[in-house]
C-alpha cells in the first residue's frame, strides 16, 4: 500500500537588517557575494515569516508554494536550487538508513506567510528563504548546523543565510570558487548585547522599482565607487563593526552603520543608469537622526537603509525616550507604536521642515529589537489532510488584528530563563533562547553547569557581581585550601603539646588551658574591635591581608609550642588564640566591606551565602588533601619546611586576591593617587578604579605626600576642635564646610582637616572628598617647585559627572569614619560663638 501520509514541519524565521551591506555577486549562479556583510537579527514578535513545509506521495500536482494566501511560482531557479540541495541531503540519509521514508522523492507543498510587507525593503526574501530552508531541513530531519544550512539558504537569497542565526551575524564572502566557505557565522548572541533596539519607519509598502538582484548586476557592471567599496571600505567596516559589537560600543556601532549605509547608496547612485532606493522621506529621516544626536550631545541613534526607502533607526533601550520620543509627536497618527511609546518624552524637537516631510511620508512604524533565530513551531499552515489551513488562505493580517508577542521569563538578575511565543491565535509555544541546547549531551552539560553555578555563584553571575569578583574568589579559595592544610599541621602540634598519647598528661590541665585561651580570645576580640573597628572598612584590603598574617602567625606558635617549656607553651598558645581572634575580627569586617562592593543587585546576603558554600567545598578538599599530608609528613624538619612553604603560598594567594579588587569608592590612599595624577596631567586624566588599584600599596601606605622622594607633608583629619586649633596651628584655608590647619612636627608639615556640618546631612561625602582634595592641592602648592596654575579641585567638582564617568561612586566615600564634625560657628543672642 502506498504511503499517503502528509509529513509536516513548521518554522518561524526572522528578518535581519544589515549594518554592513551585501551588494554585488562574484558568481550569480552560486549566489556568491563580492564582499562580506554583517547584520542584526530582529525580534520575531514584530517581524517574522511562518513557513510550513510538507510532503506526501499524495501530492499529485508536484511542488507548490502559497505565499500570504496566494499561489506563487515555485519553478524559479533560486527556489529549485534550495529544493535540490535539501533533497540531496535527505537522500543521503535515506541511503544510509533504508528504513527511513523516502521523503526526498515526494512533492513538496510550502505554505508561508509574513506579518510585514513583501519586497518593500524589509528583508522579506531573507526571512522567507531562511524559513523555507529551516522548515524543509526539519521536515527531512537533517542534522546540519545553521552554518551548514546557510550554504543552502544563500542560494535562495544571499541575506537569508544571516537569518538562520539570532543576534549579530556575519556572512563571510569566502574565497573558494565553489562557494563552500561562503556561509553565515555567529558574531555574538542576542544576549551579548540585548539592549539593541530598532525603530523602522515604513515609508512605502510598495514593491521596489528595481529589484535587489537586478540592481546588483547593474552596480557591479557600471559603478566605479563599487570597486573601492569592495576593496577598501567594507573590509574596514567589518573589522570595526565586529570590534564595536564585542565591546558593546554603540558610538562606534552607529558610526560604522551610518557610514556603510551612505557608502552603499552612493554606489547605487553611481550606477549607470543610477539607482535611487531612497526618497525625500528617507533623507528627512537622516536629518532627524542627526538632529537627535546633536541635541543629545552624543551618538544615541544610527540610521541605515537597505534596498528601499524605509529607515531603520538603531538605538539602545536606555535612550528610548530620547530617540523614540522625538518621533512620536510627529507620527502619533500612524499605527505600529507599542504601549507606552506615546508617553516617552524626548528633549529633542525635530525641525519643522523635517517633521513635516516625515509626517506626510511615513505610513506606519515598527518598534523592535535584536532577537532570536529560527524557531520550530507547532502552528501548521498545512492541515493533516494536505490542504492549506484557513489562516493561510487569507490576506496578510491587518494592523488591528492581535499580534504575536514574545514573553521572556527572567530571573532576579534579568537573565532570560525561558521564552514563550503567544501567537495571534492564542496559542502558546515555548521558544528556544539564544543558549538553548540542541543535543541531549549539551543539555546534560548545561544542566550540570547550571547546578554548579547556582550552588557556588550568585544568581545571574557574572552580571550580578562586579567584574573583579571572580579573580578575588579564585585566589581566596586557593588561600583557604592552603590554610586548611596548614591548620591540620598546627592542630596536630597542639595535640602533641597537650599530651595526646601521653599517659602523664592531665585532662584538667588541658581544660584549664582551654578556658584561659577562650577568655583571652574574647578579650582580644573586644579590644581589637574597639581599637580598629572604624578603620577596617576604609582599609578593607589591608586588613583582609593582615587577617591572614595574624592567622599564620598563630599557626607558627601552635607548631612550635611542643618545643617550649610548660609556661612558655601556655603563653604561646594563648597569644596564638589572641591572634586568631584578631584575625576573626579583621577578616569578618573586611569581608563584609568587600562583599558590599561585589554585590551589584541587592544580593549581598546571597553573595555571602554562596561564599560560605565555596569555602565549605574548598575546605572539604583541603581536609582530604591535608589528611594525606599529615599522615605522610611526620618528621619535625619536614613539617617545619612544609609549613613555611604553605604559609608563604597562602599569603601569596591572599595578596594576589586583594590586589584583584578594584574598589570604586575613595579612601585616603585612592583619593590621593587619583588627585595627584589629576593635577600632574593638568586635569586631563581621571584614573579609573582599575588604574588606581594597580598603584595601591596594600599594607605600608601612610597619608604622607612626598617631594623629590622624601616625606614633605602629612594629611590627617582632626580628631577634635582642640586637636586642630592647638597652640602654633595656622589656618591656611577656611570655608563653610572645612578648615585646613598647619602645624609643623619635626620638620614635617602636618595639615589637619577640621570638618563643619552634621555627619548625617546630605552631601557629606562630597564635602569630605572636597576637603581631602583641597588638602592635597594645598600641600603641592607649598612645594618649592610648585607650578600649579589653577584650582584643580574646583575644575574637578565643576562637573561631578567626571568622577562617575571614570567609575567612582562619589556618594560612598570612606576617607575617615572617626573624623570629628563641628557645627558651623553661629552668633547666639549674647554675641557668643556656639560651636
Automatic annotation (TrEMBL):
<keyword id="KW-1207">Sterol metabolism</keyword>
<dbReference type="Pfam" id="PF22700">
    <property type="entry name" value="MVD-like_N"/>
</dbReference>
<feature type="domain" description="Diphosphomevalonate decarboxylase-like N-terminal">
    <location>
        <begin position="13"/>
        <end position="184"/>
    </location>
</feature>
<dbReference type="InterPro" id="IPR020568">
    <property type="entry name" value="Ribosomal_Su5_D2-typ_SF"/>
</dbReference>
<dbReference type="GO" id="GO:0005829">
    <property type="term" value="C:cytosol"/>
</dbReference>
<dbReference type="GO" id="GO:0005524">
    <property type="term" value="F:ATP binding"/>
</dbReference>
<dbReference type="InterPro" id="IPR053859">
    <property type="entry name" value="MVD-like_N"/>
</dbReference>
<dbReference type="Pfam" id="PF04884">
    <property type="entry name" value="UVB_sens_prot"/>
</dbReference>
<keyword id="KW-0753">Steroid metabolism</keyword>
<dbReference type="GO" id="GO:0019287">
    <property type="term" value="P:isopentenyl diphosphate biosynthetic process, mevalonate pathway"/>
</dbReference>
<dbReference type="InterPro" id="IPR029765">
    <property type="entry name" value="Mev_diP_decarb"/>
</dbReference>
<dbReference type="GO" id="GO:0016126">
    <property type="term" value="P:sterol biosynthetic process"/>
</dbReference>
<comment type="pathway">
    <text>Isoprenoid biosynthesis; isopentenyl diphosphate biosynthesis via mevalonate pathway; isopentenyl diphosphate from (R)-mevalonate: step 3/3.</text>
</comment>
<keyword id="KW-0456">Lyase</keyword>
<keyword id="KW-0752">Steroid biosynthesis</keyword>
<keyword id="KW-0547">Nucleotide-binding</keyword>
<dbReference type="GO" id="GO:0004163">
    <property type="term" value="F:diphosphomevalonate decarboxylase activity"/>
</dbReference>
<keyword id="KW-0443">Lipid metabolism</keyword>
<keyword id="KW-0444">Lipid biosynthesis</keyword>
<feature type="domain" description="Protein root UVB sensitive/RUS">
    <location>
        <begin position="447"/>
        <end position="681"/>
    </location>
</feature>
<feature type="domain" description="Mvd1 C-terminal">
    <location>
        <begin position="198"/>
        <end position="375"/>
    </location>
</feature>
<keyword id="KW-0067">ATP-binding</keyword>
<comment type="similarity">
    <text>Belongs to the diphosphomevalonate decarboxylase family.</text>
</comment>
<dbReference type="InterPro" id="IPR054549">
    <property type="entry name" value="UVB_sens_RUS_dom"/>
</dbReference>
<dbReference type="InterPro" id="IPR014721">
    <property type="entry name" value="Ribsml_uS5_D2-typ_fold_subgr"/>
</dbReference>
<protein>
    <recommendedName>
        <fullName>diphosphomevalonate decarboxylase</fullName>
        <ecNumber>4.1.1.33</ecNumber>
    </recommendedName>
</protein>
<dbReference type="InterPro" id="IPR036554">
    <property type="entry name" value="GHMP_kinase_C_sf"/>
</dbReference>
<dbReference type="InterPro" id="IPR041431">
    <property type="entry name" value="Mvd1_C"/>
</dbReference>
<keyword id="KW-0756">Sterol biosynthesis</keyword>
<dbReference type="Pfam" id="PF18376">
    <property type="entry name" value="MDD_C"/>
</dbReference>
Amino acid at each position: 500500500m502506498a504511503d499517503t501520509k502528509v509529513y509536516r514541519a513548521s518554522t518561524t524565521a526572522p528578518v535581519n537588517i544589515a549594518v554592513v551591506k551585501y551588494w554585488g555577486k562574484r558568481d550569480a549562479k552560486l549566489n556568491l557575494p563580492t564582499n562580506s556583510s554583517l547584520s542584526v537579527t530582529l525580534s520575531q514578535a514584530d517581524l517574522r515569516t511562518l513557513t510550513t513545509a510538507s510532503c506526501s506521495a499524495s501530492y499529485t500536482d508536484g511542488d507548490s508554494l502559497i505565499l500570504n494566501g496566494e499561489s506563487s511560482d515555485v519553478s524559479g531557479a533560486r527556489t529549485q536550487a534550495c529544493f535540490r540541495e535539501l533533497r540531496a541531503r535527505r537522500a543521503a540519509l535515506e541511503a544510509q538508513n533504508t528504513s527511513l521514508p523516502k521523503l526526498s522523492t515526494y512533492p513538496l507543498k510550502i505554505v508561508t506567510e509574513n506579518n510585514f510587507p513583501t519586497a518593500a525593503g524589509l528583508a522579506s526574501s531573507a526571512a522567507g528563504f531562511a524559513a523555507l530552508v529551516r522548515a524543509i531541513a526539519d521536515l527531512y530531519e537533517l542534522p546540519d548546523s545553521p552554518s551548514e544550512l546557510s550554504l543552502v539558504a544563500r542560494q535562495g537569497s544571499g541575506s537569508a543565510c544571516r537569518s538562520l542565526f539570532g543576534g549579530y551575524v556575519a556572512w563571510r564572502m569566502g574565497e573558494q570558487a565553489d562557494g563552500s566557505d561562503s556561509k553565515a557565522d555567529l558574531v555574538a548572541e542576542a544576549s551579548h548585547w540585548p539592549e539593541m533596539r530598532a525603530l523602522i519607519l515604513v515609508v512605502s509598502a510598495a514593491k521596489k522599482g528595481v529589484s535587489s538582484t537586478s540592481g546588483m548586476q547593474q552596480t557591479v557592471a557600471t559603478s566605479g565607487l563599487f570597486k573601492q567599496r569592495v576593496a577598501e571600505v567594507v573590509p574596514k567596516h567589518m573589522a570595526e563593526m565586529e570590534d564595536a559589537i564585542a565591546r558593546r560600543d554603540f558610538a562606534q556601532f552607529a558610526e560604522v552603520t551610518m557610514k556603510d549605509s551612505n557608502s552603499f547608496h552612493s554606489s547605487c547612485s553611481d550606477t549607470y543608469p543610477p539607482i535611487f532606493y531612497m526618497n525625500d522621506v528617507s533623507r528627512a529621516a537622516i536629518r532627524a537622526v542627526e538632529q537627535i544626536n546633536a541635541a543629545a550631545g552624543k551618538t544615541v541613534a544610527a540610521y541605515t537603509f537597505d534596498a528601499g526607502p524605509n529607515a531603520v533607526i538603531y538605538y539602545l533601550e536606555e535612550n528610548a525616550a530620547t530617540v523614540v520620543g522625538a518621533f512620536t509627536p510627529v507620527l502619533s497618527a500612524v499605527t505600529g507604536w507599542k504601549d507606552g511609546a506615546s508617553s516617552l518624552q524626548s528633549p529633542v524637537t525635530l525641525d519643522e521642515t523635517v517633521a513635516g516631510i516625515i509626517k506626510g511620508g511615513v505610513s506606519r512604524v515598527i518598534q523592535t529589537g535584536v532577537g532570536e533565530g529560527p524557531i520550530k513551531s507547532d502552528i501548521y499552515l498545512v492541515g493533516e489532510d494536505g490542504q492549506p489551513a484557513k489562516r493561510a488562505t487569507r490576506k496578510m493580517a491587518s494592523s488591528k488584528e492581535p499580534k504575536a508577542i514574545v514573553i521572556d521569563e527572567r530571573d532576579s538578575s534579568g537573565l532570560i530563563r525561558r521564552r514563550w511565543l503567544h501567537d495571534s491565535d492564542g496559542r502558546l509555544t515555548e521558544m528556544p533562547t539564544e543558549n538553548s541546547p540542541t543535543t541531549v549531551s549539551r543539555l546534560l552539560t548545561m544542566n550540570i553547569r547550571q547546578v554548579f553555578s547556582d550552588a557556588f555563584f550568585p544568581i545571574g553571575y557574572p552580571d550580578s557581581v562586579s567584574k573583579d569578583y571572580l579573580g578575588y574568589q579564585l585566589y581566596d579559595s586557593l588561600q583557604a585550601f592552603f590554610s586548611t592544610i596548614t591548620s591540620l599541621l598546627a592542630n596536630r602540634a597542639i595535640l602533641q603539646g597537650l599530651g595526646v598519647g601521653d599517659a602523664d598528661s592531665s585532662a584538667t590541665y588541658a581544660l584549664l588551658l582551654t578556658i584561659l585561651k577562650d577568655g583571652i580570645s574574647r578579650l582580644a576580640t573586644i579590644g581589637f574591635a574597639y581599637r580598629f573597628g572604624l578603620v577596617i572598612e576604609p582599609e578593607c584590603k589591608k586588613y583582609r591581608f593582615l587577617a591572614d598574617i595574624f592567622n599564620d602567625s598563630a599557626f607558627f606558635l601552635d607548631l612550635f609550642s611542643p618545643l617550649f617549656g610548660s609556661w612558655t607553651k601556655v603563653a604561646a598558645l594563648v597569644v596564638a588564640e589572641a591572634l586568631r581572634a584578631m584575625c576573626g575580627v579583621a577578616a569578618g569586617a573586611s569581608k563584609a566591606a568587600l562583599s558590599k562592593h561585589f554585590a551589584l543587585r541587592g544580593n549581598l546576603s546571597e553573595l555571602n551565602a554562596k561564599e560560605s558554600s565555596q569555602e565549605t567545598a574548598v575546605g572539604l578538599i583541603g581536609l582530604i588533601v591535608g589528611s594525606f599530608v599529615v599522615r605522610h609528613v611526620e618528621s619535625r624538619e619536614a613539617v617545619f619546611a612544609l609549613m613555611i612553604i604553605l604559609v608563604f603560598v597562602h599569603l601569596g594567594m591572599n595578596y594576589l586576591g586583594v590586589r584583584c579588587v578594584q574598589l570604586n569608592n575613595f579612601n585616603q590612599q585612592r583619593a590621593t593617587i587619583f588627585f595627584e595624577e589629576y593635577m600632574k596631567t593638568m586635569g586631563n586624566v581621571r584614573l579609573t578604579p582599575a588604574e588606581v588599584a594597580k598603584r595601591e600599596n596594600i599594607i605600608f601606605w601612610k597619608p604622607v605626600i612626598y617631594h623629590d622622594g622624601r616625606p614633605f607633608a602629612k594629611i590627617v583629619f582632626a580628631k577634635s576642635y582642640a586637636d586642630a586649633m592647638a597652640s602654633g596651628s595656622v589656618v591656611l584655608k577656611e570655608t563653610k564646610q572645612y578648615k585646613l590647619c598647619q602645624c609643623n612636627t619635626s620638620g614635617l608639615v602636618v595639615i589637619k582637616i577640621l570638618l563643619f556640618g552634621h555627619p548625617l546631612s546630605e552631601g557629606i561625602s562630597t564635602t569630605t572628598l572636597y576637603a581631602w582634595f583641597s588638602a592635597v592641592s594645598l600641600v603641592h602648592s607649598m612645594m618649592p617647585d610648585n607650578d600649579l596654575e589653577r584650582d584643580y579641585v574646583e575644575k574637578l567638582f565643576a562637573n561631578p559627572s567626571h568622577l562617575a564617568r571614570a567609575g567612582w561612586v562619589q556618594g560612598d566615600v570612606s576617607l575617615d569614619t572617626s573624623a570629628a564634625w563641628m557645627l558651623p560657628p553661629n552668633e547666639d543672642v549674647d554675641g557668643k560663638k556656639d560651636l
